[in-house]
Amino acid sequence: MMKQKHRARDTPKTTGKRALTIVLGFVCLPAGYYAIKAAHSSSADIYETRSNDSVMAISFAEAQLFPAKRQAYLDELLQGVDLPYCEAVLYDPDGSQILSYRDLQLAPGKNSPHQNAIFLEREESLFQGGQYHIYTPSIINRRGKGEHTAIFVGQKAFTSDLFQNDEDLKAALVAHEQRHVLQYAQGMNVDQSVPPPFIDHLLEGRITLKTVYDIAELDAQQQELMRIKQGEFRVSDSYLTSRRNEFYQNKSRLETMLSFSSPAQAAYIKAALRSYGTTAF
Ligand SMILES: [Zn+2]
Questions:
Q1: How far, in Å, is the centroid of ligand 1 from the Cα of 180?
Q2: pTM of the model
Q3: Domain range for residue 207?
């Protein structure tokens, strides 16, 4: 089948209204982000329809070899895929895109320094030099408020051996990362397993940030594995094995954490294991 030419579409934007987070020592470069976004406007909420049996104009192997082709490759890979609440899927070779994106979300007055400090805990060094696979930024105290976010693809998506082909990467973006986009926009039901407001459990140390991440990850891992199991993505054996291992490792880490948790964290983990940890893969 021939690839269809894509049309320009309006992209809902919430940037600027967003609160939040992160990254000390960064220069805010919003213009850079928007230049990239404009240049890749096809990486937006809705991609054009493309038949499943289309042949990619740029192969995964070619995108691995030629960094300059990676954004075009991602755009083509995601044609025809609906990604609600996802502003863009952006190749980020040096980490500058995700970091300037997060600087844009810093909204003085919306979060206390204490809240920001919590969000800073894990994030800062992960993206330097673009040495990450894929990441979907979110702000925990903005979860469930209909916010949009973007999916950032680092160098390792093309240079490590995790992804072997188009379908591996597509499963990661469309099933796993898009699940993180929805967690952010729509919230997670398990957050209701502890008395609201959820953020207070973090700020007051009853639930750790790591547990929050691990639980969001368990949900995304389960979603991706279910959709692979249903035949939506024809992933490589090595990719499936590694995703399956990550799921079971995460699940057993959470089970172990139960013994070292406050009552609130134990309730939260139990709810997560019931919701996301019962399917066998
Ligand atoms: Zn994830």
A1: 7
A2: 0.80
A3: 189-281
